[in-house]
Every structure is written in structure tokens, then in C-alpha cells.
Specification:
Length: about 675
């Protein structure tokens, strides 16, 4: 691709650091030796002789802990005067007040100053063996040209830029170019439909979209430009679409469309970085909620970047020279924090994975590990469960001796998958970090590591809160559960630098969703169990959100789409345990009177409708037609009853005194049995 063939030139490096990347010279993992080799800032923390001591400082001396890390690990144009001003009760969160910096400078320029030819990105293209390495100097040039192109096209500080691209160096450069000039990026997963993309473009009020002509994934071509064309037809605010050429295939270009590489080559590689306040917007990222409308979560500059970098370093024991392999798409928060911002802020080498776990065969991940010599591998339980079914042979035929840490993300990992991951993939020598966090938290909040040397790791448990994270379990009445061996709503009792600041243009919804359910606490929406040893285990969502293959999907959002079908009068969507995806979607349908449509035709049409409106991953697994839904006398659907039926626990329906029509439940139970029998008979 032309944009990787830049002439060598002398680059001006902004905000030159007084030292190299902080990770160099730091011990690989704390092994019981001097704590200051593991965390240099610990020299200033009284009483922090070990990991529990460091953790205590991080939650009890918050300003001292994060102030020291903020000063030492970020490059500031002007230093901050206050570490934080946060009040969860009132709903405001600010970190590193008065500080000014540029995120792109922190991720690029300072590393170009010390190691310009170090590899920043390894682009693992869809076809194995065709990887492309991009150095820090090349990525800075790419970012500079793109930043200047955006400015010439009229993009200004604070403008929202929608990025609809597969994982590739230009997608990373697009994110960093926005950060460099002070624009706000909003990356949309390139598997979303044109309607889902249009919703996000409109909500963000984007005037600029960056995309590619086509995507390549799993040996298949996806017409991404075509999807963007359909989306922008209903987005009158869009003024320009910058189109990169991922393949050689020419695509129709309209008056809105700008050939990206062509324009970039006209620009200089040096792009003056904007001076950004710590709390200026860095990016929006949309996630499903319990209502039908996706919410654009806002992350700001300094706090997010620091938290992504510190969690990347300590959870994965990242050391200078390691190759970090996070196989998440950049369209999700995992890709933002652990493909782009965390590794690049740390001066690391990070892998961009364009393909799928099973292309061209189920050994793809492990062949990539062998060829790229990946040291830390971070993937989703869904993929691990899928690969487990293909057996050990596909893993064992490849050399995985470079691996040091294995991680899982997106949903809790079940014990069987965890043990296979640990014993087969990691040869029983690589710690498995089952990480819990969310788009809202910005970075990992609970994870088995970091910890004291030799501390146990238990299968399927996130276990230990990260530095600065103070979890609390609350009961239905809002009382704090202080004892162990107890379950409750997982909340976080104090602010941390990486947390989302608001929902774009809807702070009221942010307060109602996260801060008002349990005043004084951040409510995660998840339930958790705290073991007798004080370890945390996630037990699932407490709101009407299901987790399909690590992607959050609001049941209300899905119901809203299903109800658009001409034959559907009413619907209810229930999540159920799925062997591969973690959770699947089970849809109950009540048809309009007089409707004559076969079950097969209806199922096919509804699956197609959901795929078109959201994405293929959201397509329902089961669709059951019933005469009526179980409701209370006030007309509310009794979802807990439907959930028990779907989980084959019809004998555990509980209190049904408020149920309006008991016959409806019996009909649904019988219909569910028939549907399962039909499935098994196929």
C-alpha cells in the first residue's frame, strides 16, 4: 500500500522526553526484589513494600499514587496543578486539572526521539504470512500526513470524525491523526450495518467519515464503501468521505468522496500537535444499553491514556521488546485500549489482527503466535470455546514457546475453556488473566494480575481489583455487603482516571444509568460474587443487556427491530447460555391477528432484518411464536419467567401471584420443548 512507502525525512519531534519509554529498565515482573524496580514511583509511597501495600496506597492515597504516575509516565506540554476533582454523588469527574498534552505525541513523537526504527505495529493481514511491520517513524509520518489532510479538508478541533475501517495501520493513524489535531474520533466496528453506522454518524454529528474501498476478512471481501454510501444518504451533515484503497478494486466515487492516499501524498509529514486540556474529548465509542438507542460514551485525554498504559504494563507484565498480540477489532474498546493507546503509549510493539480465528484453518492464532513470536496473547472466550472444539492438534503443531501471558476479555470465561487455554495453549506455564472491564471503565478493573509473586490464579475468576479500583457489592436495598462469600451488584466506590466522563449529548442518561442507581457509587450493570478469600467472580448482567460473543446487545434494541416486521405484534428477547458465544438471543414472538406466515419464513426474515439493522452477530438463535406473553396484571412482561423457561428450569419459576394468565406460561413451556425437539431432529 502506497502509504507505507514514505521517503525518509528528518522529523521534528514535539515535547521531547527527558527519558526513554518508561517500560525500559523496569523489571519484568515484581519477583520480590526492590519494589522500585517494578514501579519506580513507589519510592515516594510510604509503607508500600509489596503489592498489597501498593494497592492500599492506590485507593487510600489516590492523589499521591496517580499524581506520581501521571507526572512520570506521560509527557506534558504544561503540567497539571491538581490530580483530581471527582464527585460520584454529584456526577462530575475530572483528572489532572490544568494539565495540557497531546495524546499522539505521547504515543509517537517521544518514542521516535529514542527509537525511531522500533516496530510499532505488526499488521497481520487476512492472508497469513503477509504481515507488514510499521516503525514508530513510519507511523508518525503516516499520522502527520493524515492529520494535515484532515485539516486541509476542513476538520477542526472538537469535530467528530467517524472511522469505519478494518484493523490496518491507516485505521490506527486515523485515530492518532484525530488526536493530533484535536478532533474527536468515533470508530464504528466495520461489521455493523449501514443503518447502525448511520445512527452513530448522526448521533455524533460527524461531518467526516474515513473508510476503505473494501474489507478482507476470513478470505471474504466486504463492501465497506458501499455500506458507507448507504449510510451517508441519510446523514445530511456528512460533508466528506475519505476513502483508502485496501484492495485494488475501484469503487464508485461521488462528490463527497476523497481518495485518501492521493491526498495524503500531497501533504507534509510534520503536523503541529494541538495543545489539549486533560479533560478535552479524545473519542466517543458507542455501546448498547438497556434502551433501544446505543450510547456514545465519552473518554477524555490524559486520564484515559494513563490508565490504558498502566493497565497494559502491569496486567500483562509488558516489557520493552515484547510483542503484544491483542486480536480484538479496533472497533471495540479492547482495540482502543490494548491494540492502540496502551501499547503505543508504552512504546511497545502491537499486533493488528485483520482475520478470523479459523481462517484459513483453526490453527490461525497459533501459527501467528509462532511466526510473529507473540509474548502476550489477548483474546475472547468465544474464540477460545470455538477453537477448543477443533481439538488440541491445531494448537500443538505450532511453536508457542514465545508466549508468557494469556488473557481473556469480553465476558467471563468458563472453567473448561480456561483449563484448555492454560493447559493446551499455554502448556501449563503461562498465567491466564481473565480480565473484567467495560467500554465505560476505559481499561481493565479486575484481573488476577498484578499480584504478589506466586499468588494463586483460579479458573474463571477475575479475582483482584487493579490499582485505584475499589469494588463494592451492594444488595437490592443499596446496602453495602461487607462480608465475603456473598453476591450483589458490582459497583466501584471511587473515581479512577480511565472511566468514561459522560454520554455524548446526554449527561442525564449517564447519571441515570451509572450514578443514580446506587448514589455515591459507579454502577457497572454487572452482578458479582466475592469468594471467602475475597476474590471477585462476575456472574452476568443485571440489566436487560445480553453479551453475544463479547458484544453487548440491548434486548430493547433487538425487540425494537423485531417489532418492525409486518407480522409481529409484540416480542420479548431473552439471553441464554450458549456453548460457543457465551450468550445467545432467544426471541418470543406474538403475531398480529390474521397473519399467515410459516415459522421458517418468519425466522429467516427476522434474522435477515436483525443482520441488516445491527450486524450478523446479533441474529437470534431461536425464534418461538406464541399466542401471548406472560405479563403482570399491570401489563409488564415477566422476563424472569421467560428466562427460566429458556434455561430449561420451568420447575423454578418462583412467585407467580402477579401473573395475569397462567395458561400463557404453560403454552410457552410446551412450545419451547417442541422447538428444541425440532432443532435436535434436524
Amino acid at each position: 500500500m502506497a502509504w507505507l512507502l514514505h521517503r525518509a525525512c528528518c522529523l521534528k519531534v514535539f515535547c521531547q522526553p527527558s527519558r526513554g519509554p518508561f517500560s525500559s529498565g523496569i523489571a519484568r515482573a515484581w519477583s520480590g526484589g526492590p519494589l522500585t524496580a517494578y514501579m519506580p514511583e513507589a519510592v515516594a509511597f510510604a509503607g508500600s513494600r509489596d503489592h498489597p501495600g501498593l494497592y492500599t496506597v492506590s485507593v487510600e492515597q489516590v492523589d499521591e499514587f496517580w499524581g506520581a504516575l501521571g507526572r512520570n509516565r506521560l509527557m506534558w506540554i504544561n503540567p497539571f496543578h491538581s490530580v483530581k476533582d471527582c464527585n460520584l454523588q454529584q456526577g462530575w469527574v475530572s483528572w489532572f486539572l490544568g494539565g495540557q498534552l497531546n495524546v499522539a505525541v505521547n504515543c509517537l513523537d517521544r518514542h521516535v526521539h529514542t527509537a525511531p526504527n522500533k516496530v510499532a505495529l505488526i499488521w497481520e493481514k487476512d492472508e497469513p504470512g503477509k504481515e507488514v511491520r510499521v516503525t514508530y517513524r513510519e507511523l508518525l509520518e503516516l499520522t502527520g500526513r493524515l492529520g494535515n489532510t484532515l485539516k486541509r479538508q476542513g476538520v477542526k478541533r472538537g469535530d467528530r470524525v467517524t472511522i469505519y475501517m478494518p484493523p490496518c495501520p491507516l485505521a490506527v493513524a486515523s485515530m492518532l491523526a484525530c488526536a493530533r489535531i484535536g478532533a474527536v474520533h468515533t470508530v464504528v466496528f466495520a461489521g455493523f450495518s449501514s443503518e447502525a453506522l448511520a445512527d452513530r454518524i448522526r448521533d455524533a454529528q460527524s461531518e467526516t467519515v474515513i473508510t476503505v474501498n473494501q474489507g478482507l476478512r476470513g478470505g471474504k471481501v466486504t463492501e465497506l464503501k458501499q455500506t458507507v454510501d448507504q449510510a451517508v444518504r441519510v446523514c445530511p451533515l456528512v460533508k466528506r468521505v475519505l476513502v483508502s484503497m485496501r484492495t485494488e478494486q475501484k469503487v464508485p466515487m461521488s462528490e463527497l468522496d476523497v481518495p485518501l492516499e492521493e491526498e495524503m501524498m500531497k501533504e507534509d509529514v510534520c503536523c503541529e500537535p494541538a495543545v489539549m486540556e486533560s479533560e478535552d474529548l479524545l473519542f466517543l465509542l458507542y455501546t448498547s444499553g438497556s434502551t433501544g438507542k446505543p450510547k456514545g460514551l465519552v473518554h477524555s485525554q490524559a486520564g484515559y491514556l494513563l490508565y490504558a498504559a498502566v493497565t497494559h504494563k502491569y496486567v500483562f507484565d509488558y516489557h520493552d521488546g515484547d510483542v503484544f498480540g491483542c486480536v480484538a477489532d479496533i472497533g471495540w474498546i479492547t482495540g482502543h485500549s490494548y491494540v492502540v493507546y496502551g501499547p503505543l503509549c508504552n512504546g511497545g510493539t502491537t499486533v493488528l489482527f485483520e482475520s478470523t480465528p479459523v481462517y484459513p484453518n483453526p490453527g490461525r492464532y497459533w501459527e501467528t503466535v509462532e511466526r510473529l513470536r507473540i509474548n502476550q496473547f489477548y483474546g475472547a472466550p468465544t474464540a477460545i470455546r470455538l477453537l477448543l472444539r477443533y481439538g488440541d492438534e491445531w494448537v500443538k503443531r505450532y511453536d508457542r514457546s514465545s508466549l508468557k501471558i494469556l488473557g481473556s476479555v469480553g465476558e467471563p470465561i468458563n472453567t473448561e475453556a480456561w483449563e484448555w487455554y492454560f493447559n493446551v495453549v499455554g502448556d501449563a506455564r503461562c498465567p491466564v488473566v481473565d480480565t473484567w472491564w467495560q467500554t465505560e471503565t476505559g481499561g481493565i478493573c479486575i484481573s488476577p494480575r498484578p499480584s504478589s509473586p506466586g499468588d494463586e490464579i483460579l479458573p474463571g475468576m477475575a479475582m483482584r481489583p487493579f490499582f485505584g479500583i475499589s469494588p463494592a457489592l451492594l444488595d437490592d436495598k443499596g446496602s453495602i455487603l461487607t462480608q465475603n462469600n456473598v453476591s450483589g451488584a458490582l459497583c466501584i466506590s471511587q473515581a479512577w482516571p480511565g472511566m468514561a466522563r459522560t454520554i455524548y449529548n446526554d449527561h442525564k442518561r449517564f447519571l441515570e444509568t451509572y450514578l443514580m442507581p446506587y448514589p455515591g457509587f459507579f454502577f457497572t450493570g454487572d452482578g458479582a460474587y466475592r469468594s471467602s478469600q475475597g476474590y471477585y467472580q462476575l456472574t452476568g448482567r443485571l440489566d436487560d443487556v445480553i453479551n453475544v460473543s463479547g458484544h453487548r446487545l440491548g434486548t430493547a434494541e433487538l425487540e425494537d427491530i423485531v417489532n418492525q416486521h409486518r407480522a409481529v405484534a409484540e416480542s420479548a428477547v431473552i439471553g441464554f447460555p450458549h456453548e460457543i458465544k457465551g450468550e445467545g438471543a432467544y426471541v418470543f414472538i406474538v403475531l398480529k391477528k390474521g397473519t399467515d406466515v410459516s415459522q421458517e419464513k418468519l425466522s429467516n426474515e427476522l434474522k435477515e432484518l436483525v443482520s441488516k439493522k445491527i450486524a450478523k452477530y446479533a441474529s437470534p438463535d431461536y425464534i418461538q411464536v406464541t399466542k401471548r406473553l406472560p405479563k403482570t396484571r399491570s401489563g409488564k412482561i415477566m422476563r424472569r419467567v421467560l428466562k427460566k423457561i429458556v434455561e430449561n428450569k420451568a420447575d423454578e419459576l418462583g412467585d407467580l401471584t402477579t401473573l395475569d394468565d397462567h395458561e400463557a406460561v404453560e403454552e410457552i413451556i410446551e412450545g419451547h420443548k417442541r422447538l428444541l425437539q425440532e432443532e435436535q431432529g434436524q
